[in-house]
Each structure stands twice: as structure tokens, then as C-alpha cells.
Amino acid sequence: MKAAYIEKTGSPKNIVFGNLPKPELSETQVLVKVAAAALNPVDTYIRAGTIQMDLPLPFVVGCDLAGVVEAVGPKVERFKQGDRVWGSNQGMLGRQGTFAEYAAVEECWLYNTPEEVSDEDAAATALVGITAHLGTFRDAQLKMGETLFVNGGTGGVGSCVIQMAKAIGARVIATAGSDEKALACRQLGATMAVNYKTDDIAAAIQRVAPDGVDVWFETRREHDFDQAVDHLALGGRLIVMAGREACPPFPVGKFYVKDCKMFGFAMFNASPQEQRKCAAEMNRWMAKGKLRAKIDRVMPLAQAAAAHRLQEQNTIKGAGTLAGKIVLKP
Fold first, then answer.
1. N or C, where is the chain less crowded by C-beta within 10 Å?
2. Which helix (H) or strand (E) holds 218?
3. Given this model, what pLDDT does residue 243 score?
4. Cis link prior to 251 (omega < 30° from 0)?
């Protein structure tokens, strides 16, 4: 089968597009014929060796996929040949990735794809949607009528946070890096969206939530905790899920006197049961058109190295040339 893989960690030029044997199934695995795979920043960190993991070599890159079940192991119970499925959590912790024509995936990391949802949309929503759901509901426990602030509303996670909050009847304030991206946040359902480069964020929050926001969802790698804590309401919740090397100062006094809580998490630490709960609600929203990842571009799998370079330029160097997910097709 064709696959995008590495023999050693390093720059995107280490990605080889070539032939590898089709995966053999264990008793609890599903063989998926991949129709679409999506790229995430974490994929670039693993490929670069920034996140240290034991990788089977040659190592197929990629976390997310959607496709059709080709075969199942004898102990698989939830899927059969011909089922459409999507999933995430591949390409890490010893598991081979998804940038290939076929992927062998443990049953516990797969979910049925709703009839109404394309493979491209399912793959693009996988990791970012589960991440958004875990932070918004498992940790922050956002409720109808509350106000959520999301920094980075057009990013993969941020755009899902906006849609999920809107779906349960919460208000959303979002930031974006341009007027065009702020408009995109409003089109996703944000009550207020501001250009963080030119607009007064404090004034925008004051207009929508004069007593402060109930949830501050931080998607950026650089954190301003003084700003976040200043704008949290009494009992507010702060979510962090990016910025592996960040060590910003933290205003302890302002934080605890307002009975605030902070949650940090990495999506891939969540149990299969927790992630399946997220996926079930995501499927309901996707089927009704209430949740859809913003796809910036679709590329052939043969261009996996170029896709990694583009993602890296935007995630690390702030190039601003991406406004959504990169999806690759075998």
C-alpha cells in the first residue's frame, strides 16, 4: 500500500511517500480503507521528535482518519465489513498512523460515520472535535445560558468550541487574527467576534458579559493568564490545552479569590470511554449540520511532506496562511 512515513524523526523532508505492507490485524483491530486523513499540529511535533514517543519504524504519520471497514478481527463486536467509520488517536503511543491507504485501528478508537457526513468532514473534525468536547463539557461543564470566551476561534479546536457552545444554547465571544476570520467566527455562531490585532478585547467582553465569562477556553500556545483571570466571572473555569513549552506568570491571588478553576488536558490521555461519549454527541451534531470542521484545503497523500511544512509554518511561525484543517486523500 502507499503510505507517508518516516524512518527517523526530524524535518518534513524526512517524510517518505512510498510502499509499505498492508497492516495485519490483531483480534481486536479493524482494517480501515482510508478515504481521508486530517493533519494536526501534534502530528508535526511527533514527526519532528519534539514530543518524545517510542515509534515503530518505519512509522506512518497521522492521527485522524475516515473510511470504510475492509476487515475486522475475530473479537471486534461493533463494526462489520462495509461500515463507514472515523477515528483519531492513531500515530502516537506506539500506534501506527493514518497517512496510508489502509490503517489497522483498535475497535475502541473508531466510531460510525453518519450517512449525512462526508469522509473529509469526519476526518477533519476528529481530533479537534474530541478535544473541544472534552474541554468544554467534561472539564468546564459549560451549560445553557453561560458565556464562553475562546481565544483562536477559527482554529481547528476553536471553531468546534464555538459550534458546540452554540449547540447547547451558550453565548460565545471569540477572537481571530483578521476581520475576515472574525466574520467567520460569527458565521459559526459566535455572539461576538473580535480581531485581536486591532480590536479592544476587554471592551467586547464587557459588552457581552459585564460580570465576566464563565469559561475561558485558551487554544493559543502563548498564554496571558492576567488577561484571562481578569475576565473570568465568579466561579469561572479556565481551559488550557496548548503551549507545551510555555511558562507564563500566573496571578494566583486574583484567581483563587474568585473561586475559579483551571483545567489542563491532552486529548490523547482521555480514555476510550470518555472519547466515545464525545464522539456520540459529535455524530448527532454533525448529522444535523450543527458541527463541521473548517477545511482550508484538500491535498493528495503524496504531498504529505508539503502539508507538514505548511502546518508547521502556521502553528509555530504564525504565517497566517491557513484558515482551517488540511485534509489528505490517498
1. N
2. strand 213-218
3. 81
4. no
Domains, in order of start, for the chain:
2-125+271-329 (3.90.180.10), 128-267 (3.40.50.720)
E strand map for 73-190: 84-87, 102-106, 110-112, 147-151, 171-176
At residue 322, the pLDDT reads: 83
Distance CA 105, CA 26 (A): 9
Q: How far is CA 296 from CA 67, 285, 311, in A?
A: 20, 21, 11
Quick one: CA dihedral 13, 14, 20, 22, positive or negative?
negative
Q: Give pLDDT < 50 ranges for the chain.
A: none
pLDDT at 217: 98
Contacts with 80 (C-beta within 8 Å, 6 or more apart), sequence order: 69, 72
Q: Among positive and negative, which fits the CA dihedral 282, 81, 40, 93?
A: positive
pLDDT at 221: 79
